[in-house]
């Protein structure tokens, strides 16, 4: 019941599990990021590079210019039948025309018809997020979920100021989808509702979030099972609607809520600890299978400040609907050391002669640099955290479409979990698990929660 927001929980897991260094500046209410690492990530830590892309929180970053503008909504069918449209977060630098999704963890192509979100032992699962944002629209995901104690599948909308609309699937209850919503990350234990459906693992359903300025509908297979009206969300204390109202990315995730290191409330909600030797695993991992995501964009809301057609930007730290403008600003980072304030920064270009291992990598991936230790990719820390593909700490060690992923996925149909042959997760840092992330422990807002999480990590 209470709790939780899927994305940040999932992100928190992904992040906290892999943090090694504790000396990362934190951000949150009344604590903005410093100028040298200006971007506040979704889980409250400051960095550059990928920290300034999707999920970068404009309210707690150094300035409103620190995070790059959000690529605008594009109506489209995302046919998830290969990994071609998916860029690992260690490679993506903000060019939404080149990648439709950004991943952390290990997505796997399945028989040219679907993408698997995988979760193998000692990993913290997989998260996919669209590169384009949606500012109201009808978003559908056609998918099956995973199953088992402690295993959570999620299809959600999440904005950079943590407005959130959720479908969550808890692996011990495959007859229900849990619907939920949050406003600016503020925990509210009364928003969750179960939506009854037929087995979410064995049946492919289409889950739809139909989101307008006035209401949210949650639908399964075209049937509306829940509606929340904006009018019903008035918060007299805050003097505003606690209603999701800012541009959000589509996120799909599979994550281990049932890790021993998680808070008891989280583990209970998820039905207990994950069994890492479970019949629900195949090829050595849990998986959820996503066939298709469809986004139908609605027009910007009436009264919106429309000054262009390419991106959304926040003009004020209130982070409400009326502080979002539509602009023509597009920023693609020149390297993993660039930020929204300095998008051209690329120390490797300037210092390529002197930095030994640098600039041998392909494409846009940044390389090691001699410059100060700053965090460049949320969830990665240390030597591999420079957006360098294949680096020792990279979450994804395989290039998209590489041969290792194919056989594993192809044999998925064979019955039974014959266990982990031939497939190995790149994320070996996942083992330490996540710090407690039960909102009830810290109370108050999700922001506070994230802050507490970071606090734990620093200890
Ligand atoms: C949803 O159902 C589960 C049991 O399957 C229950 O534990 C949970 O409290 C329900 N949530 C709500 C919001 O009713
Ligand atoms: C109203 O907003 C305040 C401030 O954000 C928050 O602390 C409180 O929990 C909200 N009330 C409800 C019922 O969500
Ligand atoms: C923002 O929301 C308010 C209701 O809180 C509404 O009256 C206003 O029209 C909205 N403005 C935009 C630009 O969406």
Automatic annotation (TrEMBL):
InterPro entries: Beta-glucanase-like (IPR000757), CHR-like (IPR017168), ConA-like_dom_sf (IPR013320), Glycosyl_Hydrlase_16 (IPR050546). Its EC number is 3.2.-.-. Residues 349-373 have a biased composition (Low complexity). It holds the Pfam family Glyco_hydro_16. Residues 1-22 form the signal peptide. It catalyses: Random endo-hydrolysis of N-acetyl-beta-D-glucosaminide (1->4)-beta-linkages in chitin and chitodextrins. Belongs to the glycosyl hydrolase 16 family. CRH1 subfamily. PANTHER family: GLYCOSIDASE CRH2-RELATED (PTHR10963:SF22), GLYCOSYL HYDROLASE-RELATED (PTHR10963). This is Crh-like protein. It comes from Coniosporium apollinis. The lineage of its organism: Eukaryota, Fungi, Dikarya, Ascomycota, Pezizomycotina.
